[in-house]
Prior knowledge:
Number of helices: 16
Oligomer: single chain
Amino acid sequence: MTKKLLRTLAGERTETPPVWMMRQAGRHLPEYRDARARAGDFLDLCYTPELAAEVTLQPVRRYDLDAAILFADILLVPDALGLEVRFVEGDGPRLSTVTTRAELDALRPPDAIHDHLAPVYDTLRIVSGKLPPEAVLIGFAGAPWTVATYMIAGMGTPGQGPAHALKSEQPGLFDALIERLTDATISYLSAQIDAGAEVVQLFDSWAGSLRGEDFENYAVEPARRIVGALKSRHPDASVIAFPREAGLRYEGFARRTGADCVALDNAVDPAWAARHVQKDGPVQGNLAPDMLVVGGDALVRETRTILEAFKAGPHVFNLGHGITPDATPDNVHLMIDTIRDWTQVPGLASHDPGTRTAASGT
């Protein structure tokens, strides 16, 4: 195993941490904006393998990152299940909804989504054949709770109120929707791994709005089922879980779900996370995205603070959320140079096998 990211996800410490960025393929890059203009509609870009592959590869070429992440969207799953999905420029996604048993029953079965998603798998195959040998290919999906919030409301909503209301008023219907999405996510991510993804990330962007037992039932339990099924089918694949805004509930998330790595949002104090989350295995994160707008000495200081906090264990450097369109490539280069000029393990020439933790399977 020679790829730095894979070694880190297996529990090793490397001389400097691997680095990639959530939403690294996107609007902050002029080459992305050119490809987006050629595609026209956002979904057309997602479903055109040659263009989606080009967009996936762009940030790796520009920044020499340790990983490429598939260019797609978490709402491709509801699209494949049979909902009408469209993206309104400047206003976000719009979907037909699932708020009744009849609408749930009208969805395609989880294993019947693959013809619709075949272009996504083609994108992965193209990228896999073009990536530099040291770069890792990451696939992804939205977690069931987060995807369900869009399917219930028909759009993004502050606080995810419509989903919480359905969960309270029609718990049987809500649980059946989560079950359907969990099965579909397992099927989708498994197919991504078959198509060339070496790592997959589960994005639970709205996990922080779940309280009490709801967090266990709808963030932890679906992630546990998804990770377990993927590990059973693909023992060599790694899974990163990102329960955004989980706060203190990040602690133990890897143990409870079996995830190889937990991604942290930028509200989490790195020193706290090193003590309470990294003890269970690799962590990923967690620079605030706005630092790539600010740049300069402030960016260097924040980057070094995170590097120092996580230096005692396996760490994947990333942002605490997706890179924003107003970030500048020069600032991304400055962040990467700061990471690669810093030594996480003094005197470590290649890598230290370390000890696998309970979170990573030993």
